[in-house]
Design brief:
Blueprint lengths: L2 H14 L3 E3 L23 H4 L9 E9 L1 E2 L2 E2 L13 E10 L4 H15 L7 E6 L3 H10 L6 E4 L1 H4 E3 L4 E12 L20 E14 L5 E14 H9 L8 H14 L7 H22 L8 H19 L11 H8 L5 H4 L1 H35 L4 E2 L1 H9 L5 H10 L3 E2 L1 H20 L8 H9 L4 E2 L6 E11 L2 E3 L1 E3 L3 E6 L1 E2 L13 E5 L2 E12 L2 E10 L1 E3 L3 E6 L1 H24 L6 E6 L4 E6 L6 H17 L3 E7 H6 L13 E7 L3 E4 L14 E10 L2 E8 H21 L7 H34 L4 E3 L2 E7 L4 H13 L4 E9 L2 E8 L9 H9 L5 E4 L3 E6 L5 H14 L3
Parallel strand pairs: 1-2, 6-7, 12-13, 14-19, 33-34
Antiparallel strand pairs: 2-5, 3-4, 5-11, 6-9, 8-9, 9-10, 10-11, 15-16, 15-18, 15-24, 17-23, 18-22, 20-21, 20-24, 21-22, 25-26, 26-31, 27-28, 28-29, 30-31, 32-33, 34-35, 35-37, 36-37
Helix pairs in contact: 3-4, 7-8, 8-9, 8-12, 9-12, 13-15, 17-18
């Protein structure tokens, strides 16, 4: 049975048991900054377990893509070395939200394993939480002998998604891979760390919510969360001892072997590298497809690390050029049936991988150079231990796995400072924990959830009109509900219906006025804290408001109309970028405000001037065509079938709103738009810049704002033309001439400086002293700091055996350059010398063995600095 067959059989089985099939969520957890990555099937249901979100079903099943690369669930160090650990894996799951509990969950699991998969009961064992007598009774009743049931403590059989959140006791099913697998010890049994007894199924009985202080509170409803590793189940069914031996992994490993020309099972060392590359490839592709891009922080940093780890193992397999991007096709073709979005992002994913590979190959050379320099210095000092700081820097900055650095050190007959490295690693982990563990989700006022449960569904009328009458249901002041609020107080108001748009999907919230008789509120913002709840926030400017008041809600229509223009223009911009730059362009964020729009998109390099002009031309062409903008409500699946784009990071329900612009743009969007593109009138880009690795940002204007911007730009052009005395049409050629003249003058100045420096150097050489056979010049000179190094090198070139120490002052700072002739650099190290000398001027410095620089602020210490150099040379210290 192939892996994709196991996946489908599982989902079909639970669908027949009245479970709703749910699509896998993104690897980036939605609205949950406590997690770097989705690491379990239940992550997308977290708010359901907490009772904060209602779904139209109480039973669900899914196959969730997962990554475990951070926090307590981090399998990275084991990947490639065991047959069961992975960075990326698929978790099969069935879930009950206040429906069935322990007994039915256990029976369903056993039925699927025994009757559907037909695994042998003689190979199956069960573990339970140490105090869970109920689970033991159910297992025995199901047919599992008591001797095959093992009890474990909280570490093994009490499951939690993270340090906080839903949790509860669990029961696991293990499969015996055979006594020829694993450690071989007679005592080997369930719980052993070897590969013999593999956990294939975990049933978590969600009963509690754990807060940041470790307190457990009962969940509103008892729930079930099942996790079954698809890869492990497949290995058991195919009768192989390692996940890497399954049909799925063998296709990937075969590709890696073909490209690297290294056969699988040639040696244990190369097998590990082949397995690491195969495993990491899966994580890399899915992370990039889900919107993670290599960077130096957060999720991007983790992605960069595993990409570099894969490349290092590629180097062990003899690969010295980019190769991982060539491996993606087979895997994407294999997975696109279950994850069709992979096929759409194939080109983009491969480009991201290629760019990062090229970047790391440059980094790799730098890292090797650092290692070799450190080894050379240590040999000179007759030391035999590589400092932990070097090991950590190679690991953290250059992506060198510690085991690689250890191996390189051993080849040089060096030890490594493991303790120092571990201290730095722990410090980094602490920083990572603080950066993520300390971040808590923006707390939603519990009152909002209670209103959703108790009130009739709020109606949003803002698509059709900007004002309406509505009944005031709730008043919130300082996070507490009040019956009445008075003039001068800032409040949040919830109505039975509203025309105010709550901030969401990048579009800012509406402002305006709410009136009841002689009472009025100036609405400064409108929020959407929950999918079906809109809250208006503002200050009472006159009178008072009470629950039950019937009010007039009036949106600031001029402001909203400006927002409309920018929102539809954002859709046009997305379309135009994909047309001009390529289909790999995806929206990565946006801001739709009344005065501007901001659009973040995935791309690797700045757009050229011609590309930006073409984007503008296409958009303004569509504006001129006055294409119809048509909103439609439809099922999510139908919208995708129509070709509507679902945007990254957005959450969609069963029913969605599709915005179609003419016949060329379709996007899922809940925002407010124009009726025809002609209303936008004008579009212009004001900036395109990078905001992260692989992510760029365009800022643009529409309508009156665009016209004002272009008018000011034209006025500036006229002013420039007047200043440089030319016609506006000839500004560019005139400026080019000015620049050429400036360059020519700069060259003349540079030549004159060189001539003066040459004359100065001749006169300076007359001041040389000879100390112990070394020509020494230590002197302050009157030159530009930028010329100091060149002058020192020029003087040094005229000496056979000598040292030049020059100093100059500029803007209150003292600059030093120390230069040694080539032969002398073997006896003295310029970088070490200048560090000691720079103390005299209240500064610091460093550099190579032959030349070094320093800076300080105490010019009075210059004479002492010169004397110190001469003193060192007199003593003959090296």
């Amino acid at each position: 049975m192939k892996l994709e067959e196991v996946r489908e059989i599982f989902l079909n089985f639970f669908e027949r048991k009245d479970h709703t099939r749910i699509k896998s969520a993104s690897l980036i957890p939605e609205n949950d900054p406590t997690l770097l990555f989705t690491n379990a099937g239940m992550v997308q249901f977290k708010n359901v377990f907490l009772g904060e979100e209602a779904r139209p079903y109480t039973r669900a099943t899914s196959c969730q893509r997962c990554v475990r690369l951070s926090g307590k669930h981090n399998d990275l160090e084991n990947v490639g070395f065991t047959g069961r650990h992975h960075t990326f894996f698929e978790m099969l799951g069935n879930f009950s939200f206040g429906d069935y509990f322990k007994e039915e969950a256990i029976k369903l699991a056993w039925e699927f394993i025994i009757k559907v998969l037909k695994l042998k009961t003689s190979r199956l064992y069960v573990s339970i939480f140490e105090n869970d007598d109920e689970a033991e009774k159910i297992w025995i009743k199901t047919g599992v002998p008591k001797k095959r049931i093992y009890r474990f403590g909280e570490k093994d059989n009490f499951w939690a998604m993270g340090d906080t959140g839903p949790c509860g006791p669990c029961t696991e099913i293990f499969y015996d891979m055979g006594d020829d697998i694993g450690c071989g010890r007679p005592t080997c049994t369930i719980g052993c760390d070897c590969d013999r007894f593999q956990e294939i199924w975990n049933l978590v009985f969600m009963q509690f919510n754990r807060d940041k202080d470790g307190n457990l509170t009962p969940l509103p409803k008892k729930c079930v969360d099942t996790g079954a590793g698809l890869e492990r189940l497949t290995a058991c069914l195919q009768g192989v001892h390692s996940n890497y031996e399954t049909d799925h992994f063998q296709k990937i490993i075969s590709d890696v072997s073909h490209i690297t020309q290294v056969k699988y099972h040639d040696s244990n060392a190369t097998d590990i590298s082949l397995q690491v590359v195969a495993d990491h490839l899966r994580a890399i592709i899915f992370l990039i497809a889900d919107g993670v891009l290599p960077s130096n922080e957060g999720r991007g940093y983790v992605l960069r690390r595993i990409m570099r780890r894969a490349l290092r193992h590629g180097k062990k397999l003899g690969m010295h050029e980019p190769f991982i991007h060539r491996l993606g096709s087979t895997f994407i073709d294999e997975m696109k049936g279950a994850y069709p979005e992979l096929a759409d992002k194939k080109e983009f994913v491969q480009k991201v991988i290629r760019a990062e590979e090229e970047r790391f190959l440059e980094t790799l050379e730098s890292g090797m150079k650092l290692f070799q320099e450190e080894i050379a210095n240590l040999k000179k000092l007759k030391k035999k231990t590589l400092p932990g700081g070097v090991l950590f820097k190679l690991y953290d900055t250059y992506g060198f796995p510690p085991d690689l650095t250890r191996l390189m050190a051993e080849e040089e007959k060096f030890n490594v400072d493991e303790e120092g490295f571990n201290v730095l690693m722990e410090k980094q982990r602490d920083m990572g924990r603080k950066a993520w563990k300390g971040v808590t989700p923006k707390k939603v006022n519990s009152l909002y959830n209670s209103y959703l449960k108790s009130d009739p569904k709020q109606r949003f009328l803002g698509y059709e009109k900007s004002s309406t009458k509505a009944k005031l249901l709730h008043i919130i002041k300082d996070d507490e509900e009040v019956k009445e609020a008075k003039c001068g107080e800032t409040v949040e108001l919830i109505f039975d219906q509203t025309t105010f748009y709550g901030e969401s999907g990048g579009q800012v919230g509406d402002t305006g006025e709410i009136i009841s008789g002689s009472s009025a509120i100036n609405v400064t913002d409108t929020l959407k804290p929950l999918p079906d709840l809109i809250v208006s926030r503002g200050k009472i400017t006159s009178g008072s408001f009470k629950q039950g008041d019937v009010c007039d809600l009036v949106v600031d229509n001029d402001r909203r109309n400006s927002i409309r223009l920018n929102h539809t223009a954002t859709h046009l911009l997305h379309w135009a970028l994909r047309k001009v730059v390529g289909n790999h362009v995806k929206q990565a964020g946006s801001l739709v405000a009344p005065d501007r729009l901001r659009f973040d998109y995935t791309h690797f390099e700045p757009l050229t001037y011609d590309q930006l002009k073409e984007v503008e031309r296409l958009i303004n062409e569509r504006i001129k065509e006055n294409s119809e903008v048509k909103p439609r409500q439809m099922p999510y699946k139908d919208a995708l079938a129509l070709g509507a784009m679902a945007l990254f990071g957005e959450k969609y329900g069963e029913e969605v709103r599709v915005i179609s612009v003419g016949d060329f743009s379709r996007e899922l969007c809940g925002g407010i738009h124009v009726n025809n593109t002609g209303e936008i009138r004008l579009f212009t880009v004001v900036n395109d810049g990078g905001i992260a690795s692989g992510v760029r940002r365009i800022e643009a204007l529409t309508g009156e704002e665009a016209l004002n911007y272009l008018t000011k730009s034209h006025q500036a052009i006229l002013k420039i033309a007047e200043t440089i005395k030319t016609h506006p049409n000839e500004i560019l050629s005139k400026i080019q001439k000015i620049i050429e003249n400036q360059k020519m003058m700069d060259r003349e100045i540079s030549n004159l400086k060189a001539e003066l420096t040459s004359r100065d150097s001749e006169s300076l050489l007359k001041n040389i002293e000879n100390i112990n056979g070394i020509d020494v010049l230590a002197q302050e000179v009157l030159v530009d700091p930028a010329e100091l190094k060149n002058l020192a090198e020029k003087l040094t070139s005229k000496l056979k055996k000598g040292i030049i120490l020059l100093a100059c002052e500029s803007s209150g700072k003292v600059n030093l350059v120390l230069s040694l002739t080539k032969g002398l650099a073997k006896e003295y190290h310029a970088g070490n010398l200048i560090k000691e000398i720079a103390v005299e001027i209240g500064g610091s410095g460093g550099g190579r063995a032959d030349i070094a620089q320093a800076g300080g602020t105490r010019s009075a210490g210059l004479e002492n600095a010169f004397k110190l150099l001469k003193s060192i040379l007199n003593k003959g210290r090296s």
